[in-house]
Amino acid sequence: MPHDNDEKCGQFRGNGKESPEHMNVMSRMLDHNTLPWIWSNCSRYYLFEYFQAGLGACLEDEPWKNKIVEDDVEFTLAGELFSATQQCQYVFGKTSSICPYMPKCKRLWCTTTLDEKEGCRTQHMPWADGTPCDKNRWCLRGDCALKNRDELRKIHGQWGAWQSWGTCSRTCGVGVKRSERFCDSPKPQYGGHFCIGERVRYESCKLRECPLGAPDFRSEQCKQFNGKNFGLPDIPQDVEWIPKYADRREDSCKLFCQTHTSGVSYQLKEKVEDGTPCGPETYDICVSGKCRVAGCDYVLNSTLKDDWCGICNGDNSTCQMRSGTLEDVQPWGYSDILVIPDGAARIEIHQKSYHNSPNDDNYLGI
């Protein structure tokens, strides 16, 4: 999870998506403008991407004790459970207490290990919501607000409408486009439930055929790292990367690349671009870092398959079957026994040993 001022969050700044007036949970440092109750749009993006990729499986196990506030229990704020002095003690130690002469709620000012005469200190965090700050008033998001518990009633989140489909992830061939919806109709508040269900939906998009001889999509992604050896001692500075397909399906949507001269592969990206084939001999497509099932029609979740003739959803009626048996004695050494026709598929070759003996000095090569 990057800090909000990290370059990875640059796309969310300066375009109206983020307010420059305050900082959020993942701010690099805290000050009086920090809102520790709110994730930035950048943080939300990376959290959703993480869970969308199926990496949050560790959170699916049932807890041994349910500590979530139930629907029929009144929502309790942290400041109702811990006084301002207790909050200081959690931050600065047991001898600290609330500073009596500093403003309330905005920042938690606490005494030093001696007393307030030696000055007070803060870590720029506000008082906990619900901390009493005056008669019939409590701290709420850094302000000493009128105490009104009705404002804290649970609001369960509801999904908003699906947005329009975005652009295709590729300019030719088969790609993926996505549509999003947000849990903002209304947003969950004060312990209310977050929306359950898919936040992002995907759809295949088939464009014009890529030019003959054009590199495949995974090759293009490896090519972006040409000339970067990442300080590896055995990799030249003018390295040219080529794709290496993973052996396991769960790794098939990570970008592994290798050099032309080495069989050693390196993971250069956590996930390939959406629409990248999971492998060289499958129609399945990578979506958000996961290998998703696709049919021979290149449609996600389709069950259509090629028939034995290589025709999508065919009935094998166009196949031309060829078979034969070779029993002639061949001279010692290499001998050509068969030329496989161009375009042949579903090839099966069986070798029978002499008298079904387990020892046979004949070897087939292609």
Automatic annotation (TrEMBL):
<dbReference type="InterPro" id="IPR000884">
    <property type="entry name" value="TSP1_rpt"/>
</dbReference>
<keyword id="KW-0479">Metal-binding</keyword>
<keyword id="KW-0325">Glycoprotein</keyword>
<feature type="disulfide bond">
    <location>
        <begin position="172"/>
        <end position="210"/>
    </location>
</feature>
<protein>
    <submittedName>
        <fullName>A disintegrin and metalloproteinase with thrombospondin motifs gon-1</fullName>
    </submittedName>
</protein>
<feature type="disulfide bond">
    <location>
        <begin position="133"/>
        <end position="144"/>
    </location>
</feature>
<dbReference type="GO" id="GO:0046872">
    <property type="term" value="F:metal ion binding"/>
</dbReference>
<dbReference type="GO" id="GO:0031012">
    <property type="term" value="C:extracellular matrix"/>
</dbReference>
<dbReference type="GO" id="GO:0007229">
    <property type="term" value="P:integrin-mediated signaling pathway"/>
</dbReference>
<feature type="binding site">
    <location>
        <position position="61"/>
    </location>
    <ligand>
        <name>Ca(2+) 2</name>
    </ligand>
</feature>
<dbReference type="InterPro" id="IPR013273">
    <property type="entry name" value="ADAMTS/ADAMTS-like"/>
</dbReference>
<dbReference type="GO" id="GO:0004222">
    <property type="term" value="F:metalloendopeptidase activity"/>
</dbReference>
<feature type="disulfide bond">
    <location>
        <begin position="9"/>
        <end position="42"/>
    </location>
</feature>
<feature type="disulfide bond">
    <location>
        <begin position="88"/>
        <end position="110"/>
    </location>
</feature>
<dbReference type="Pfam" id="PF25379">
    <property type="entry name" value="Adt-1"/>
</dbReference>
<feature type="disulfide bond">
    <location>
        <begin position="183"/>
        <end position="195"/>
    </location>
</feature>
<keyword id="KW-0106">Calcium</keyword>
<feature type="binding site">
    <location>
        <position position="58"/>
    </location>
    <ligand>
        <name>Ca(2+) 1</name>
    </ligand>
</feature>
<dbReference type="GO" id="GO:0006508">
    <property type="term" value="P:proteolysis"/>
</dbReference>
<feature type="domain" description="ADAMTS cysteine-rich">
    <location>
        <begin position="79"/>
        <end position="144"/>
    </location>
</feature>
<dbReference type="InterPro" id="IPR036383">
    <property type="entry name" value="TSP1_rpt_sf"/>
</dbReference>
<feature type="binding site">
    <location>
        <position position="61"/>
    </location>
    <ligand>
        <name>Ca(2+) 1</name>
    </ligand>
</feature>
<keyword id="KW-1015">Disulfide bond</keyword>
<dbReference type="GO" id="GO:0005576">
    <property type="term" value="C:extracellular region"/>
</dbReference>
<dbReference type="InterPro" id="IPR041645">
    <property type="entry name" value="ADAMTS_CR_2"/>
</dbReference>
<feature type="disulfide bond">
    <location>
        <begin position="99"/>
        <end position="120"/>
    </location>
</feature>
<feature type="disulfide bond">
    <location>
        <begin position="105"/>
        <end position="139"/>
    </location>
</feature>
<dbReference type="GO" id="GO:0030198">
    <property type="term" value="P:extracellular matrix organization"/>
</dbReference>
<feature type="domain" description="Adt-1/2-like">
    <location>
        <begin position="244"/>
        <end position="297"/>
    </location>
</feature>
<feature type="disulfide bond">
    <location>
        <begin position="168"/>
        <end position="205"/>
    </location>
</feature>
<keyword id="KW-0378">Hydrolase</keyword>
<keyword id="KW-0401">Integrin</keyword>
<dbReference type="InterPro" id="IPR050439">
    <property type="entry name" value="ADAMTS_ADAMTS-like"/>
</dbReference>
<dbReference type="Pfam" id="PF17771">
    <property type="entry name" value="ADAMTS_CR_2"/>
</dbReference>
<dbReference type="Pfam" id="PF00090">
    <property type="entry name" value="TSP_1"/>
</dbReference>
<feature type="region of interest" description="Disordered">
    <location>
        <begin position="1"/>
        <end position="20"/>
    </location>
</feature>
<dbReference type="InterPro" id="IPR024079">
    <property type="entry name" value="MetalloPept_cat_dom_sf"/>
</dbReference>
<dbReference type="InterPro" id="IPR057401">
    <property type="entry name" value="Adt-1/2-like_dom"/>
</dbReference>
<keyword id="KW-0964">Secreted</keyword>
<keyword id="KW-0862">Zinc</keyword>
<feature type="binding site">
    <location>
        <position position="3"/>
    </location>
    <ligand>
        <name>Zn(2+)</name>
    </ligand>
</feature>
